[in-house]
Amino acid sequence: MKNRLRKILEDRIARDILTFFYRNQSSVDTVGGVSSWVQSDQKKVQSRLEKLVKAGVLEKDSMGATNGYCYTRDEKKMKIVEELIENV
Amino acid sequence: MNMEEKEGLYMERLFNKLNENWDLRHEISAFSRYLKTHDWVMLRGLPENYKELKKTEIVRHVKKVIDSPKELRKELMKILKAVRGSRKNRAVERFHYGRKMHGISYPLMYEDVICGFIVLCSLKKQMSSDLLNIFASFTDTVIRESIKELELEDLNKTIRPRAIALSTVHTVHRLMTATLDLSELLPRIARLSLQVLRANRCSIKLVDSKGKLLLPMTTIDLRKDKALLKKVQIGKYAPGRAVKKGTPIRGRNYLAVPMIDEDVVGVITIYDKLDRKEFKAFDEEIMKTLAEQAVIAIKNAQLFKEQADLTLSSIKCIARLLENRPHGIHRPEASLQKLINIICPKINMNESEIKMLQYAAMLHDAGQISIPEEVLMKRGELTGYEYDIVKTHPMKGASILSKFRPLKPIVPIILYHHENWDGTGYPKGLKEREIPLPARVLAVIVAFEAMITEKPYRKALSINAAVKEVRKNAGTQFDPGIVEIFYEAVHRKDVRRLLEKELGKK
């Protein structure tokens, strides 16, 4: 998982998104919200969010047309993210 | 922290900012090149005495031209005097040391408060007043810029987290209000609360109708697959006390927040933070906001359920009235609903479409209310005129039900459920896929129902004979695809048992 995540984090937008959630772990936000925090295009942010959800470090809560993204609550995954973000 | 300490801290931040400011470094470096010296030092504060000054970088620069310790002390004292002078006068102070070395001390100031000094040493000649003015003016500009940067940093530190929290609250609100199904809503509220508070367990309890007990509705524990659901008496334990007092109850590892509309509706209790820290006032504030949103969503869902129950009761009431007419039949309602539940997901109908079809199945003959009893009860063959009257019942039923707003979606189902796949049906003579999908399903269901139930003017067919008859008419009267799915469904053991039970025969 760590290597896969490291590969995803080579992308600046993905790195900014994960850093945002790592630093604001209580946050639950939409694609639009996350785009404004990382100051990137919504479409690009959407695809990175999905990648990070697939990698298991973000969670997605969907209801109708509303998707809320938030940080993982899995302690092992949180530790891996911490290592990767702090060592960048 | 008192004002003085705060100011001290701010000045330290400003000094650090200036110390790492690239514009200031470039400025000093440009001056250094021009003045042919690179010996400059930034002092955070004023050295109290010679001993303290000796610890600074200034000593290294002065030692380049002074050997004897006695001389060194003397020269350093001169510099100390100049730094003190620049503090006192709030202005640049020149000094010289050794035989022909010069220097300046410039105070770094913000609103008359000094946060440090720039001390330039090893100048071969005295700096001119013009040059000093340029130096001072540029340095002051850098100080002003640094102050702006600090202000922005402070703004960012205070506003950004609040903006992020506000955005979270907004997203949570959207997620909560997007569902009106209480069984889906409550676990969602629990999950979102856990996410926002970064905790391990959340339990939601609602006040019972007597207002004495808290009924457990949902509990999510990230550490366990299953969680215990316990009733709690109002007034007992943290959730019970929070409800009784109508205010949050906070302990080291729990936080119970009542959900208040006009009265207390229930309570959300959060336990054990992921980082094992204690719940704080900020958590309480956030949870209060979430509870306010939750109660609106819960109330909406409860109202929606009441409305849906009312609609269903009305439908059942109309269905009973129809059954009790002289030509009415005892319908195997549960079996037909089960058949609908099995068939519809296989043809990709969603939950709300299925519910509407179930309503339509109960009311499909509502239009017969306007057809004379003697026609409906007639034992022999109907005349052409009588048959024309019977054929009006889908239109009449659709017209009656269209007046009842919640049932609008079933109007086309009722209207077209006597259309045939080959276009020979009524009222419009639609064919194949022109007929709405739910109406095609209902056509099969009601035909089957009509055959297996006894009418005053004819006996019922057996289940097998009715199924055979439906199959025989696949592709003419009925959609053949739906007949195939119906055929599989009606042969399921559970469906068969239910049908036999409801029809009272083997």
What does this entry look like structurally?
The complex is a heterodimer of chains A (88) and B (506). Chain A has five helices and three strands; from the N terminus they run ααβααββα. The radius of gyration of chain A is 12 Å and the shape is globular. Helix content of chain A is 59%, strand content 16%. The two termini of chain A are 17 Å apart. Chain A has 88 residues and is an alpha+beta fold. Chain B is an alpha+beta fold and 506 residues long. In chain B, helix 10 (333-346) crosses helix 18 (480-490). The relative contact order of chain B is 0.05. The mean pLDDT of chain B is 88. Classes of the chains: A alpha+beta (88), B alpha+beta (506). At the A-B interface, strand 1, strand 2 and strand 3 of A face helix 6 and helix 7 of B.
Features:
heterodimer, A: 88 residues, alpha+beta, 3-stranded antiparallel β-sheet, 16% strand, B: 506 residues, 6-stranded antiparallel β-sheet, 4-stranded antiparallel β-sheet, 19 helices, 14% strand, elongated
Quick take:
The complex is a heterodimer of chains A (88) and B (506). Chain A contains 5 helices and 3 strands.
Stretches of chain B where pLDDT falls below 50 for ≥5 residues? none
Output the helix-strand order of chain B: HHEHHHEEEHHEEEHEEEHHHHHHHHHHH
Shape of chain B: elongated
Oligomer: heterodimer
How much of the residues of chain B is beta strand, in percent? 5-15%
Strand order of the largest sheet of chain A: 1-3-2
Total helices of chain B: the number is: 19
Reported for the largest beta sheet of chain A, the result is: 3 strands, antiparallel
